[in-house]
Amino acid sequence: MPRFDDSRPEMSLEEFRLLRDHVYSHCGILVHEDMKFVMERRLWPRLEALGLPDFGAYHRYLRYDAQRHAELEAAVEALTTHETYFFREPSQLKAFCDELLPVLEKRNSRLKRLRLWSAGCSSGEEAYTLAMLLKDSRRFDDWDVEVYGTDISRRVLSMARRAEYGASALRATSADLLERHFQPAGNNRVRVRDEVRSWVSFGHHNLLDETGSQLVPRMDVVFCRNVMIYFDQAARRRVLRIVRDRLVPGGYLLLGHSENLLNLGADFELVHLQGDLVYRRPELPGLTTTGGEGR
Amino acid sequence: MNPLPEFPAEEARYRALQELDPRAAGALEVLVTGLHDESWRVRHVAAEALKRLPSSREVAERLIRVLGERGETGARNAAAEALAGLGGAALGPLVTLLGHPDPDQRKFAADILGQLGLRAAELPLVQALEDPDLNVRVAVSEALGRVGGEHSARALEGLLTDAESLLRLSALEGLALLRRPPPLPVVLAMLEDTRLQRSAFRVLGLVPEVVATERICQGLASPVRSVREAALGALGTQVALVEPARRGEVEAVVRAALRRLPDAAQRLVQALECEDVTVRSGALVSAAALGEASLALPVAEAAREDRLLREVLNTLGRLGPEGGRALLAHMADLSSPARAAAAEALADLVDPGSVTALCALLEWAEDDLRAVVVRALGRTRSPEAVPPLVDLLVAPSLAGAATRALGVLAGSNRTAVLEALEEAVTRRATSAAVAALARVGGAPALPALRQLARDAEPTWRAAAVEAAGEVDGAVGRELARAALADEAVQVRAAGVRAMGRLGGPEAGALLRPALHDEDASVRLAAVEAVGESGATDRASELEALVRHPDGALAVAAVRALARLGMAGPGVLMDAAAHPDAEVVKAALSAGALSAVGVELAVALLGHPRWDVRAAAARVLGDAGGPERLDVARRALEAEADALARQTLSDAVERLSRR
């Protein structure tokens, strides 16, 4: 059997529950019971950095220490995996390009202004992907376009701003896209080209923070893919309320393929596109909807 | 109240239902009308609202009438959804529905009872297995798997010999859900039926015996991918159930089976990309048994699923130095979770040749990954790892890990480590080098530490004071005493901590001013130091702090008094009355083995916080006498929290043995 460092403390079930509840009350992220091992491994470096002997001491640190707020953020960062890559879920992106972009172009043609939100953007791959798709569509060349990426983790946001990526992030990126939108950055890594980066901005945001969400401008489309898997039903409802509030009437919400709004009683209508199912904030009564067929 | 108004738009009808007051007269009928709406959104919001109505038999019966409306598929499904959310109120009417003349209605009843998952439905469902309609019997069988219980398990087992393969299949699936495998010969016989094979493998995985492993391994050799994956899923399930001591037996069987397959590694790569987590888990177990280094990258990528992290780390650890080299060479290509797992495993896979690659990784890796890489560097046993580790002492988040890594490295490269640390201290690179120098250098480092304790910079003074005590008690006390009067907070705090660790007859007197320090962090450190040093002469000051509104101070005071052996009844009672639950738990912990502590535990079994109740139960189990059994049992009956229940259950079990 392999030797793992035995000097590291184990996390008791009670410590797990206390830490889990603490994290949940901060940001709605729910760590399931079968994730105790993962939580233990991910928080070990925090204990090490703070020089704490065990998880009981860590819980007390989070409760009482003057640095507790910063540490809670560090804990949340450690606990949320940031696994994403460019051009993830291609069929959904194709439907977005082929069916939603023409609608958005028509809707916003007077103002020539487009706003997309990559909520829970992690290290930026999704936000840049969207900007690349908008660039490639050539529909918005002279428009005021912004793709706004937000995440609760400051660490991943700094990675997103750096815009440098390795092979794993590019595993679904074709050679021509790579050629068009990236430049070499050394050490087997690439950097997103400036013309794409100019359409993308990033900000720190807790999806459950209603006050903070007021800083997010009104959006035409929100991508919130594989983010709500971290939340329980109550937290999902709160997130969806905030997302709805940030969408313009008639604006679209795109979730991950394994997600839906069933049992969430959200204020969205389901839109059947040719290539995907998406959600839409209903138009104000009296206005007609466009794009896809609401059911 | 009128039925749902004829609004022109779906959105308006949706809003009307959402804003409907469920207590208003006629609300039930309005919502039932909503169940019939052409829009799924309106039907869904109606179903949601029905779940929120005051739960009653009347609502359940009304919804059951909707189930009977043939041709109204949308309404029937929405009614079923609402019924599944009604809980116990729906139980009686649904059990009655199991006797309805229409088999469609009976099937609905079974499906919804399954979704409700109430144990009270167990016997009626078992009886419904006699239903003349096959579809109903299958639905009942599936429901039994969700409802659970002894009767369900026995009934499902009885169905395994039914003539209808659909029933046998649903019974197998039900037993898999209940995690109740039938006798091994029965499962082995079912594996011969291709229609039942996947489910039979699922159940076979629940049998933690080598005989079962051998049969699973036959599945690994199947030319049919779905069978191979079912077998791997069974293996993943089985390994989780096998005692760690017997895992080697299982792996030996798997290894022998895989070595007979020319394309085993290829097949495992394919399985590691499977959607099903249990299949990937089985593939990881197989990869560990095979010890094939070429699988390192796909194995690491399996860490993208959090639940597989333990198995991934175990498997990577089995791939040897060659696996380690493969990981190191491709770190940039791995996804973030895979990199984290690979880095964790590398600590056990590195050798002196790994330093360059590890240092390259430090150039770009994320912070949390770097901490793990630092650990790996310490295990390379190479003198080349010394300079980068010393350089890393300047990073606050990595200083602790780098210090420890240098300590490990000094085991094989003491001179190189020492010289590098002395040089780092001389050029004032980072105060973290002081702790490392003391740890590695020992007594010969004392002159340097004395000098640093008089440095102009408080950071260096503080580091020297803390480090000196680790090397020599007398010198440590001398420097700590001086530090207690330092003008800088961080130096006073370091002096307090050092004094706490070193103790001695004067510790109490020396720590007294620190207990009243103007800075809160020094006061808190002083409370802890009093406990650690055994300064019983300061107990009265700590007793006063037990009632302090600052929970941190109060907890520290209770813990310190406990260490001094002076947490008497008064202290425990004061602490138990504190509004902060952490202080209450500290009181329980402090009084764990005393009669007062047991009294306190009994009183706190009804505390509103689950963690306090669990702590109280633990004290009762540790120190209570048999006369406490009744009170523990009563608490167990009333306990709703799973973890507190478990602790209470343990306590009851231990008390009943006394």
TrEMBL record, chain A:
SMART domains named among the record's database cross-references: MeTrc (SM00138)
PROSITE patterns to which the protein is assigned, alphabetical: CHER
Highest taxon above the source species: Bacteria
Keyword Nucleotide-binding among UniProt keywords: no
Alphabetized UniProt keyword annotations: Methyltransferase, S-adenosyl-L-methionine, Transferase
Catalytic activity: L-glutamyl-[protein] + S-adenosyl-L-methionine = [protein]-L-glutamate 5-O-methyl ester + S-adenosyl-L-homocysteine
Ranges in a coiled coil: none
Ranges of residues in domain CheR-type methyltransferase: 4-284
Protein's UniProt keywords contain S-adenosyl-L-methionine: yes
Broad enzyme group: transferase
EC number: 2.1.1.80
InterPro entries: Bact_Chemotaxis_MeTrfase, Chemotaxis_MeTrfase_CheR, CheR_C, CheR_MeTrfase, CheR_N, CheR_N_sf, SAM-dependent_MTases_sf
SUPFAM superfamilies found in the cross-reference section: Chemotaxis receptor methyltransferase CheR, N-terminal domain, S-adenosyl-L-methionine-dependent methyltransferases
Protein's name according to its UniProt entry: protein-glutamate O-methyltransferase
From TrEMBL, chain B:
SMART domains noted in UniProt: EZ_HEAT
Pfam families: HEAT_2 (PF13646)
SUPFAM superfamilies: ARM repeat
InterPro entries, alphabetized: ARM-like, ARM-type_fold, HEAT_type_2, PBS_lyase_HEAT
Annotated function: Catalyzes the hydroxylation of the N(6)-(4-aminobutyl)-L-lysine intermediate produced by deoxyhypusine synthase/DHPS on a critical lysine of the eukaryotic translation initiation factor 5A/eIF-5A. This is the second step of the post-translational modification of that lysine into an unusual amino acid residue named hypusine. Hypusination is unique to mature eIF-5A factor and is essential for its function.
PANTHER family per UniProt: DEOXYHYPUSINE HYDROXYLASE, PBS LYASE HEAT-LIKE PROTEIN
Protein name: HEAT repeat domain-containing protein
Species the sequence originates in: Pyxidicoccus parkwayensis
